[in-house]
Structure prediction request, 437 residues.
Amino acid sequence: MFGVGGATLREALAELREQGIVETRRGRSGGTFVVNQPRTQTDNIRDWFLATSISEIRDIGDEHAAVAAAIIRLACERAEAHDVDRLEELARALVLATSPEVRALADSRFHIELAVSAQSPRLARAEIRLQEETVQQLWTPLAVVFDPEPATAEHLELVRAVAQDQPAKAGHLVLEHIRRNIFHLIDTKLALGYARSNQDAHE
Amino acid sequence: MNETVQAANAITPWFNGVATEIKELSQNVATVLERSLVGKFKVSKAALVGLDGLSREFLTKNSFAVGAGTFFAADSVEEGGLPPEWWSRNPSGAIGRLKFDLTPGSDRFYDYEKLPFFSTAASTGEQTVWGPYIDYLGTEEYVLTFSAPFYVHGNFMGVAGCDIRLRDLEPLIMPNLRLIQSHAALINASNRVILGNSGMYLVGERIKSESPNQHRLALDVPHLGLSLIYTPRS
Prediction:
């Protein structure tokens, strides 16, 4: 059916059943029926904001700042020309991206490859985990749209500092960069979770 | 610095041995493809029969390598592309095929043609070694990749190579570095430490300045750019 094998189809239906999107009824008029709309990525992100407190968002930022500061210091020491070229290309990909999904992808890829250039598998794993935890939240347009241009400019500045081996400058830049991301997440949390019905409409 | 020469003499044949194995692998890959590509210029899936055997043989013979196989140049394969024929040893020792995401723009796209183990071999036409590096989206390991380009009817078709994890390389090379009393390290062509015999030279770090006490001895391994550096302990 539909050009797919029976086993694949059954597997897909089982998954949809588990998510409550379809129901299978037995009997004469039985069969598999759609009973719910699938949840979108935006629904999931909205739920994340509603379920996550500002103290937790700040704490994610604290951890990310610690990891990013270590990564950028090591990247300054250890990155070579190949890494710098690659990072520059990845930084530009963010401003060229045409949808929030692709921006999220470009942003996280940049930070992960920065970690890769630092040569520490453990820090790279930490960065991958932190990106998975927050990058969709950052770029999914919910309350306030996040602007890719300043983010790209900051990425390019970071690459320049790495290329010139300026760890102090790079460290300062990366902390500011993460602080700005966290402020955006907190702004979104405030708007979604604690809307002031009148003022927010006029702000 | 007799001991450094002695260490170099011990390490050099090991790397030349790896280079010879890779050269042979790339020639065997070319032979398989030549046979199956009679009259055709682009590699198709059907032309790959036998490559898995070459990788398995390589890994069985060379226990130092965690993975081995072939990456194709995008221009050399039929439209739609072909996945790399890359085989790796899992922790239990079983050999299995490694899968890569080759869809441009996807979140796990493995853009191997831009990685130096591929691009350097492609542009120089010679063997090369890249690393230490974190092979993000590839093997996800901290590795050195040895590679050699291969050609069919004079056309560049791709590279064959192997991965060696840094943790597996260390016990093989360290005894030789320990022969050296000085702080000493094996470094790659971009002055990155592959392995050091003390905390002074740590794997992955780059040697940026040549201090007056620091000496260098190039290893006689063609095209790989390997050297030993050493600084007498004060």
Chain A has a mean pLDDT of 93. The radius of gyration of chain A is 21 Å. Residues 1-38 of chain A form one domain.
